[in-house]
Design goal:
677 residues; alpha/beta; nine-stranded mixed beta sheet; two-stranded antiparallel ribbon; 33 helices; 13 strands; 62% helix
């Protein structure tokens, strides 16, 4: 390639031509020759960066962008492209800093800078900043439909539903044939239970794109979900699924390696519980992209639904081997599987192996926390494992304290995890007491641990129950007297004024916790005397206040008479969960609140069962309490939707030997959608 009298400019031109022809490696060689003749050429650095980015060599691309920025710090384009590469690597904080710097520089700013910075703010959980940045981009170019779309998504997350709707409609007006905009608008209607509008929007997208197989497949797949989840129309679900599957097959005939088509088929067959088909397409994903963890993750999810826990664990492990730095919610799924009955040694071995891989600090902290929770679940004969649990929790806390420069969204999760660590120090002892509630020594050990971590309420409660078991224990009595003045004295911090925190300062939650020490508490019923070790959790959201009022005025009256604890549960990301009246605001988005609810009840109360019910159901309390749920792990009632295999339900739990129960009277306890213990 080298010729006499060649100049850097000629090599750059040659490289550009080679890139147009798709000869990326030859183009890189030409750009390097240009750079050898002019080491300070910003253009050569930028072209090399772009070429390496095209070949997915992101580290090398970043290196050349950084050199270009060093040579020309005021180059807006170079900084923006550098930020984009950092975002590709998941380095959100670093990317945001580069985008922000680029927007402070002199000169005209391209609109894509605002969109990409807004995207990073959104990933980082900084919704207000994302909103402002998208608006700035829209001011520069009001006809950019993608900025309208992004703005709508942020507005929706911020709770400005009406403004979000208007903005979605603006995006469609600008680009009326783009199917993605219709899909987003339909999803908006779907989330608001405006089913007819959602269906109309999907159909409009189909009319606008009659020959687009990809669009047809996605929309029919979504229509099937609407038919199943919202309408309970099994025939409509099957018809839409058939059309979606046919479209995906046609796409695969054209391109057998169409990843989106394969993922769509996995999703459909998984929902339909046709696990063999779902696994077939998962395997094709793995074959096409063996270095991508996505195929293994999808395969693990299908196997979990199928009840093949060992297979799911194996595939998650393979995913981690390919890419250790996965989202924390993926580690949470993995942890849920590992903590199943009889898998504790396997869990400990797997966690230790992950820790040996030197994961990022925030993931290490999370794994130590999970490791501690596994140690605490060993039988009482191995009570030494309680000390191992405490050590693991302490290491988790140390790791969390080292976390810095993380995305705000993930930092919220980690802050919550840190806050849980101190409470988790006591969980091994609580668990031991659940197994043997009449062991005085265990209550004394719990009291000592509670004192160590300044959990005064729990220390007093444990000592009082120990004294109930053995009244002639003067030493315990003296400790109890000394602790009483300290109990219930903690005050909410300024940020919590006006809220009722879900902690020891909450008399209501303390009352729940005291059921641990009063296991024989009963309520009187006309038909029988039943032990009520149950909390009723009514799943709802802010906009359904009319449903909440209807429930309060009807069947909830009987719940109150029976002195059964209940909460309306609403997802609301904040510093911590809190209670206002009879509403429990869970520190999670509305679509992820169930896990956080169950985790709280499990860790902070002694209830053996949660009765989860949706806000469009009517409950017969007398019939509900006839269920002998205390002897079963999982009890379900399904009124509206089509019958699902028990594996679909049992796949959601970690208990291999789980006991499921269905009695003749189950159809009588509630009517509406569905519920379960």
């Amino acid at each position: 390639m080298a010729q006499n009298n060649s100049t850097p400019e000629k090599y750059l031109q040659t490289g550009d031509q080679l890139r147009k022809e798709g000869k990326i490696e030859e183009a890189i060689a030409a750009y390097k020759l240009a750079l050898s003749l002019n080491p300070n050429s910003v253009i050569a650095h930028l072209k090399l960066s772009e070429s390496y980015n095209n070949t997915k060599k992101i580290d090398t691309s970043i290196n050349y962008y950084q050199q270009a920025v060093k040579l020309q710090p005021e180059n807006v384009n170079a900084r923006g492209k550098l930020a984009h590469c950092l975002m590709q690597q998941g380095k959100i904080i670093e990317a945001i800093k580069e985008y922000e710097t680029a927007l402070t520089l002199q000169g005209e700013k391209p609109v894509w800078l605002y969109q990409q910075l807004g995207d990073n703010y959104l990933k980082n959980g900084q919704l207000d900043k994302a909103k402002i940045t998208y608006e700035q981009g829209r001011e520069l170019n009001p006809q950019n439909p993608w900025l309208q779309l992004k703005s709508a998504e942020v507005l929706l997350e911020l709770g400005n539903a009406q403004e979000a709707l208007t903005t979605y409609q603006k995006a469609i007006k600008i680009q009326p044939t783009n199917p993605q905009f219709y899909l987003k608008l339909a999803e908006f209607y779907f989330r608001r239970d405006e089913v007819e509008k959602a269906l109309a929007t999907y159909n409009q997208a189909l009319e606008n794109n009659p020959d687009n197989l990809q669009v047809s497949a996605v929309i029919y797949k979504e229509l099937a979900k609407v038919a199943w989840l919202k309408l309970g129309d099994l025939d409509a679900e099957d018809a839409a699924d058939e059309k979606a599957i046919k479209s995906y097959f046609q796409l695969l005939e054209t391109n057998p390696e169409d990843v989106q088509a394969l993922q769509g088929l996995v999703e459909i067959y998984r929902r339909r519980q046709e696990f063999a088909n779902a696994l077939t397409y998962c395997q094709q994903l793995i074959k096409i992209q063996p270095e991508n963890s996505l195929g293994y993750i999808r395969k693990a999810e299908v196997m979990m639904d199928q009840g093949d826990i060992d297979g799911a664990i194996t595939n998650y492990q393979q995913a981690f081997e390919i890419k250790l730095e996965q989202p924390l919610n993926l580690y949470q799924k993995y942890a849920t599987l590992l903590r199943g009955e009889g898998r504790k040694k396997q869990a400990i071995s797997s966690y230790e192996k992950l820790l040996e891989s030197n994961p990022p600090t925030h993931i290490a902290a999370f794994i130590y926390k999970q490791l501690g929770e596994v140690y605490q679940k060993y039988p009482l004969t191995q009570s030494g494992e309680f000390a191992q649990a405490e050590i693991a929790f302490q290491k988790a806390k140390e790791k969390y304290s080292q976390v810095n420069d993380l995305a705000v969204g993930e930092m919220k999760l980690l802050t919550q995890e840190i806050g849980e660590i101190d409470s988790l120090m006591l969980v091994p002892y609580r668990y031991a007491i659940r197994l043997n509630p009449h062991d005085v020594l265990l209550h004394k050990n719990l009291a000592e641990a509670a004192i160590k971590y300044q959990k005064w309420d729990e220390a007093v409660a444990a000592l009082r129950y120990a004294l109930k078991l053995e009244p002639n224990q003067p030493a315990l009595s003296e400790i109890d007297k000394g602790l009483k003045p300290l109990a219930r004295t903690s005050k909410p911090k300024e940020r919590d004024k006006g809220l009722e925190p879900l902690a020891h300062t909450s008399a209501r939650i303390s009352k729940l916790r005291e059921t641990l020490y009063e296991p024989e508490k009963t309520v009187s019923m006309a038909s029988k005397t039943a032990k009520v070790d149950l909390v009723i959790c009514i799943i709802t959201c802010e906009k359904y206040q009319h449903k909440q009022q209807a429930i309060r005025a009807t069947w909830l009256q009987e719940v109150i008479k029976q002195n059964i604890t209940y909460f309306f549960v609403i997802g609301k990301p904040s510093y911590q969960s809190y209670v206002e009246g009879d509403i429990l605001y869970v520190n999670a988005p509305d679509n992820k609140k169930i896990y956080q609810l169950i985790q709280f009840i499990y860790q902070e109360t002694s209830f053996s069962h949660i009765f989860k019910i949706d806000d469009n159901c009517y409950v017969s309390i007398d019939n509900l309490l006839q269920c002998d749920f205390a002897h079963y792990d999982y009890v379900r009632n399904e009124v509206k939707y089509k019958e699902r295999s028990p594996l679909w339900y049992l796949g959601k739990t970690t208990e291999k030997s789980i006991a499921e129960y269905r009695g003749d009277y189950l159809e009588t306890w509630a009517t509406g959608d569905y519920s379960y213990f």
